[in-house]
Amino acid sequence: MMRLRTFRLAVWAAATLFLSAASALSVEDTPFTGNFGGSSGRVCSGGIHIRAKTLEWISTYRICKSSSYDVVERDASGQYPRIVFRIKNRSRQCGLEIFELAQADAHIGQWEATAYPSMEAYLKRDQPGWVDSQAPERQALSCMMFDMNR
Predict the structure, then answer these.
(1) Which is it for the CA torsion 144, 113, 92, 52, positive or negative?
(2) Enclosing H/E stretch for 147
(3) Which end of the chain, N or C, is less packed with Cβ atoms under 10 Å?
(4) Cα separations (Å) of 92 from 65, 89, 113, 136?
(5) Tell me, what DSSP letter sits at residue 91?
(6) Which parts of the chain fold into alpha helices (H)?
(7) Is residue 94 within 8 Å of residue 63, measured between CB atoms?
(8) Could you read off the pLDDT of 92-126 as tens digits, one per residue?
């Protein structure tokens, strides 16, 4: 009788531990995926395709072929989620390394997509001398995109 109680207690403890670990997985652990289309203008025509392990941005002036990525930042806590990717193997025609997506309007599925040529350009994006600079190594590409999966 005592062994049966001990066994049941052990099974209950193991199940509780498993369920606790499973529920501890948050939105932060879930891959961000989506297909986003440009809203207007030649620069923003095309789309961004984010899959569980790859990112691709095809537009008139930039062809960023499918590449693996790391998530640099992710904030899903506020009203407007934001995620920043760093692509690992950028193609010659791409010239961009950092991709930032920030939701602009959840009601219509609008996102602001901004791409930077380097991590330095991303980190210094708000500093005087970097904002609106004409230097190619400082220029960011910014487009309003729509979630095509809505």
Answers:
(1) negative
(2) strand 141-147
(3) N
(4) 9, 9, 20, 15
(5) -
(6) 2-24, 41-44, 119-123
(7) yes
(8) 888 899 999 999 999 899 999 999 999 999 999 88
